[in-house]
Amino acid sequence: MEVLNEAYFNTKCQGSSTNCILTLMCDIVHAVNLGDSRFVDIRDGAIVYKLEIQQKGFDYPFQLGNGVKFDDSSVAQEIKVIVRTWDVIVMSIDGLFDNVHNIELEKLERDGLMDLRELGIFWRNCSCGLEE
Prior knowledge:
The chain is of the alpha+beta class. Helix content is 34%, strand content 34%.
């Protein structure tokens, strides 16, 4: 919340934005969210936490801005989520979550982890050859 307030009160330019700020401290993700940006926590290939968006109506999210029709930082929500080692946090603006369903996101995460595992095996095999 401190980071969001600092940005909000020190910005002089016109405009608005949704916001999602995450900080990981030990096994807790501390989040501040305003609008339809969000994050999900994926554990063992399944979404275990999905931050709900803030909106005034359909396709009308809260917007942090410095104009009359925009919101201020006081409407931001603060969230704490317990995470585990190997959880994957996916954080994005609404475009990802509007166009990729949960099942597809879970599959992308599983496929990506398989690619990383295969890459790790490849590099371990390469480094063994270099040591000789």
